[in-house]
Amino acid sequence: MARSFDSGQRPLTNVPYESANNPYNSGAGFYNESSGFLPPQQRKKSGLSPWIKFGIPIVVIIIAAAVVGGVVGSRDHKSSTSSSGSSSSGPSNPSAAASSAVNNKEAIGVFPTATDSYGLPVYPTTANTAAFVAPTFVASATSAAWPSDTFTPSSPAPTSVRSDRPRLIAPKYKWDALPGLIANDPYLQEWNATIIGNATAYNQSSLVQYTVDGGLSLSGVLDVARQVKERLKAYAYAFRITGNKGWVDRAWDEILNASNNGSQPFSAGNDGDNWNSQHFLDVGEFTAGFAIAYDWLYDQWSDDQRNAIMWTMLNLGLNKGVQSYTNNTFHDFYGWWQDDVNGNWNCVCNSGLTLGALALLGDDPTGQAQQLLGFTIPNALANCVQGPSTDGTWSETANYWYFGTTGHSEMTSALMTATGSDYGMLHNNTAFNQTGLFHMYVTGMTSLFNYGDHGPNKYSTTADSLLFYGTQYNTPAYMLFQRDQRDAHSDPWAMFWYDPTVTGAFWDNLPLDHFFDDPVDQWASMRTSWTSNEGLYAAIKSGQLQKHQNHNDLDCGDFVLDAMGQRWAGELGSGDYDASGYFNGNAQDGTNGQRWLYYRKRTEGQNTIVVGEQNQLITAEPTIKHGSTGEVQDATTTYQVPSTSLAYFTTDMSSAYSTATSMKRGLRLLAGRKQVLLQDEMDTSAPIQWRMHTNATVTLNGATATLALGGQTMIVQILSPSSATFTTLNATRYADDPPLPPNQVDQPNPGVTVLAINLDAGQQTVQVLFNPQWPGSSSSDFVTPPSVSLDDWSLTSHNQS
């Protein structure tokens, strides 16, 4: 039911980015699979989208010793070639410049001037030396800083909590300081207006309905749980910032409804387990949402209301959590996520249970809250915290990073504010501080490098963990990057994880390229700029095809390509999560390998080489080599790479093919990063097909393909073999593919064309050159690269006199 308010809350509208009232920026209404955040009426089940439009991205990343601001990936792998690049000179007194910038935030305003059609920030092309300084936290800016927390226990314990409320993520001292910080910070002003606007939109909507997605044991009611969570957070925030008790009443309506005590049924015949332990993510998210409402509005609830919320949380949330850890039968069915699962399931479930337990400590007469904390913290340390691999890449996919890090940061922040310690959540995995860098580099110029599954609707799941990690890992560039992204505007966490003393340009001295070397991941990110979405971005991966929680594809050699504001080679994304065997990917074939029957998961559904119309082998163990001239962007938004700038990545992925004795692929940026060369060297016993999925309109002329997309043109040429020609195919399974499970179908991929090259079995070398038709460019701007064996690629291998 809608509540009436008199405090001037604004509905959602499309307004310019720079407006403090902006809810979604000018790109609102585009589905952005990296942030997944849309107005409620415009969301849809992402797993059933016809395809993740190449540009659909979001949004929101490392060599062990690398830090933001250092020259990462600046030399040939295993060589000592020094880096080079252009850079403007910085201010003569960086400390004074940073202090000036933070003290003039209101005059400077938010950095982006708009968002593009994909929801990514658009930066001004004029120099702003007053604002675009090196990333830093200005310790001397005390008027812009949060006050210190006086709760500093000498011997923190998970069951010993602060005496005041709220205790979860946003303690009272932060609420007390927040209005003054908002008044002087344009980012906080914008986010505050957006959150209040969202709460207003939710208030004008009907209560969340209990809609089961596929089945309680399939996708369950996860969307429902996350909608309830985002609403309760928004309502609780709106009350505490405005003092209008209508928001408390509206939160109570939603709580009654989600407790199955409202005017509409909130179950599917599963009374007593309405929060659905059959799909335990649902329990985690419901419990987290109720925990925030219980804690943030603690002093507003009557005794009866508080008891009602507590017993709902105990019966539908915490009790299920205790059972999942102590009841073997229950655990085997519903607690599997506790057993060596270093992905989002472990983070989300343990986080929600932890928030619920922390909220109820001191009130819970059953002892379950205290008992549960003895399970969730050590289990999260052993699993959730291990989500990033040694190079910072998230174990599942670029999109599942959002769910995993949101759960991790919520749990960690709540433990710190409620009990005074993180208990190792931040540091037990020494690579966790690099996962922010993974997210930054996996974000392209139209979208993420969105390999594998992109997951369900994100709702209140954002990349705001970067704000939290920015402070905790003393990496201001994380915070500066995320504050400009569209999903930073939507969630109350941003208001409390943001440090208003941060200042500077995240891109200043940030390397253009980064290579991720962990054998599980093995991928590269290469670009021309961090501040222009009209440049070039290329990413390519190899890596193992297991250890990704069954969210990966069979995709060694897969790549994406952005240029001139368009995605020319892109990803299809998720299949139908409710399809039979969709998550059975632990075997090559058979019942335990049914995942690999679906087109979007098969090798033919990727931008790579298919041999004999067969899938790649899940036992693949590729190797890689890479290099870069090591440019870092300067403080300007108009940075131009020098003509000598280049980067490359090669992989030997022979182990991924049963019908190839050798299979190697390399991607190289040429001509000052204006062109891209993709080269494959193969020796096979079955026919070969080179495949690339594109949204572009394709016109063929023998060995040349002209791609048109978004008013731009890309010319793609086959340089070798000389007899090869392009063909186009539908993005559908081969006629002789193994059949899908009974009564299952592949999802359609309308608007997608497969650009292909067919070759005979045997030894083949394929060189494909991508020539974006840059505005104002001429043929003299492009080069025809020499033919160099992939094993001989180096920084100088393609030099021509």
TrEMBL record:
Entry's localization field: Cell envelope
Residues spanning the membrane: 51-72
Keyword annotations of the record: Membrane, Transmembrane, Transmembrane helix
Compositional bias segments (type: Low complexity): 80-99
Transmembrane helix recorded as keyword: yes
Chief location of this protein within or outside the cell: other
PANTHER family: CHROMOSOME 1, WHOLE GENOME SHOTGUN SEQUENCE, HEPARINASE II_III-LIKE PROTEIN
Protein name, as recorded: Heparinase II/III-like C-terminal domain-containing protein
Species for this entry: Sistotremastrum suecicum HHB10207 ss-3
